[in-house]
User: What shape does this take?
Amino acid sequence: MATQESSSDGIVDLRSDTVTLPTEAMLARVQRAPLGDDGREGDPTVRALEAHGAALIGKEAALFVPSGTMGNLLAMLAHAERGADVFADSGAHLLNSELGSVVTIAGLLPKPMPGRRGAMDEMALADTIRSSERPGLIAMETTHNGAGGAVLPLAHMMRIHALGQSHGIPVHLDGARLFNAAVALGVPAAAIAVHADSVMVCLSKGLSAPVGSLLCGSSDFITRARALRKLVGGTMRQSGVVAAAGLVALETMLARLSEDHAAAKRLAAALSWLDPTLADPDHVQTNILRIDVSASARDAAAWAESVKRHGILVQASGPAQLRLVTHRHIDAAAVDRTIAAFAAVAR
Ligand SMILES: Cc1ncc(COP(=O)(O)O)c(C=O)c1O
Assistant: This one.
């Protein structure tokens, strides 16, 4: 089975950390995982993953779900009534890439908030909540994908949570890359998760598990979410096959995320040296780098096509923006090759 411990295939794939392949240790654990029917009496490996994840994130319970999108959807369904408002930063993944499920499945009305580097404007949020007829849910995101992997300050998260509590509005955290935020802040993940009632974390991004996310929260909340998971067709069977890899991800892959952050920082520094309008290394806190090509002669699609000819894959995420994401397969040589490709195209 394919695993990849370095970028040896000649292609440097910076499109996303979701391209990471499972490690040898994950595949070995899969082979000896005890299995059962998750929709009947339960799969023991899934149960172990849920217990481990809940403890790590500091919540009473967790639910294994196939994707981050399903985790966020179940949070909305379990927290809020149809027709209620969901407040989130205007650049949030939830209100952009997941808008379809917000509106059509959860039936919530998106209230996009202005913000700075992923952090909602607190005054604007308080005002919007006051004028809302049906406040339903506040959603935060850390690290913030659209804001280039920005980490929400803990004091900000604490105030947002307090605001929600003062109005009786639950707070959900899209923590697809929660462990990147924890590593960047130098705190346990639970010290971030404490500022939300529910948290979704992805195992399939920088942590390299092949499939899956965890939704975490109180026991009551997870009981509701488990029933809703069945409703949307997310109950799996011998899902210990993938949960085993997720367990190894949580046990072994957290601390190494700092290597991805260092690689992103080095890339940003080199690109800003090439052209200061491209990137600001001071804004790179984790493993996502957003590059602004508006001052160059090419649009983002042309940049992506040009660096691809050098074997470098990046994502055009707007007419003038590229997204580069570092991960386990981006070693020092891959960073060097990326810098050389950008230098060659810029010339
Ligand atoms: C911030 C954020 N939330 C949620 C998701 C959705 O995760 P999935 O692709 O597993 O559905 C992503 C995926 O990139 C993400 O970046």
Remarks:
- Residues 257-274 form the longest helix (18 residues).
- Residues 67-69, 93, 141, 145, 174, 176, 202, 204, 213 surround pyridoxal-5'-phosphate (CB under 6 Å).
- The chain has a mean pLDDT of 96.
